[in-house]
Amino acid sequence: GGSDDQKRRAAERAADLVSAGETVGLGTGSTAAFAVRALGRKLESGELDGVRGVATSFASRQLARDSEIPLLDLDEVETIDIAIDGADRVDSDGNLIKGGGAAHAREKVVDAAADRFVVVADPSKVAETLDRAVPLEVLPAARTLVSGRVADLGGDPVLRTAERKDGPVVTDNGNLVLDCDFGAVEDPESLADDLSATPGVVEHGLFVGLADEAYVGTEDGVDVRTY
Ligand code: DER
């Protein structure tokens, strides 16, 4: 992936968009983490006040608490002013592949609910087309049937195994993850509809038409794309 400086530049520029009193969706992953930390510093310095965060995973909740950002539970939130979140791929239309951190189910709820969804990334994430495996969060009991449907759709489903745990990655919601390589996804909306319609799929990592902007950190600044 890209450098920490590129990630930090993008994330801190996005954090500057947050105004006092706003409710902020706090994304998951190493790039979004820079934005969470930046918000924590702004609150600590008094530059911002009244901000409440909405976490998108166990990890982002923990980081927000370490950064002393007051949190709202997702189920008590009616509006989210801005969400800042990373991505694994961003295409030229602003469609995304997310789910590298297996947090995309709750991320999508938060990112889609936000009045403004800003993606933060480094240049390694940007591509003309979405040419990376699409993560699916699946009900554990349904993974074989879902795998069959994925194959029918032209994908190659691979159960995501954990690194420091025997067996599969288990999500915050107690489900499994299938990484499904469909090659370059030429029609993300159509594939997203097919995956959403597949029983047993809790959520897929195609974020079609959700992002409002992408902030891409470069060596000397931030490349802002608006969709
Ligand atoms: O899980 C996700 O969708 C994350 O946003 C993610 O994969 C990006 O993570 P990174 O910022 O650490 O590359």
UniProtKB/TrEMBL annotation:
<feature type="binding site">
    <location>
        <begin position="28"/>
        <end position="31"/>
    </location>
    <ligand>
        <name>substrate</name>
    </ligand>
</feature>
<protein>
    <recommendedName>
        <fullName>Ribose-5-phosphate isomerase A</fullName>
        <ecNumber>5.3.1.6</ecNumber>
    </recommendedName>
</protein>
<feature type="binding site">
    <location>
        <begin position="98"/>
        <end position="101"/>
    </location>
    <ligand>
        <name>substrate</name>
    </ligand>
</feature>
<comment type="pathway">
    <text>Carbohydrate degradation; pentose phosphate pathway; D-ribose 5-phosphate from D-ribulose 5-phosphate (non-oxidative stage): step 1/1.</text>
</comment>
<dbReference type="GO" id="GO:0004751">
    <property type="term" value="F:ribose-5-phosphate isomerase activity"/>
</dbReference>
<dbReference type="InterPro" id="IPR004788">
    <property type="entry name" value="Ribose5P_isomerase_type_A"/>
</dbReference>
<feature type="binding site">
    <location>
        <begin position="85"/>
        <end position="88"/>
    </location>
    <ligand>
        <name>substrate</name>
    </ligand>
</feature>
<comment type="subunit">
    <text>Homodimer.</text>
</comment>
<dbReference type="InterPro" id="IPR020672">
    <property type="entry name" value="Ribose5P_isomerase_typA_subgr"/>
</dbReference>
<feature type="active site" description="Proton acceptor">
    <location>
        <position position="107"/>
    </location>
</feature>
<feature type="binding site">
    <location>
        <position position="125"/>
    </location>
    <ligand>
        <name>substrate</name>
    </ligand>
</feature>
<comment type="function">
    <text>Catalyzes the reversible conversion of ribose-5-phosphate to ribulose 5-phosphate.</text>
</comment>
<dbReference type="InterPro" id="IPR037171">
    <property type="entry name" value="NagB/RpiA_transferase-like"/>
</dbReference>
<dbReference type="Pfam" id="PF06026">
    <property type="entry name" value="Rib_5-P_isom_A"/>
</dbReference>
<comment type="similarity">
    <text>Belongs to the ribose 5-phosphate isomerase family.</text>
</comment>
<keyword id="KW-0413">Isomerase</keyword>
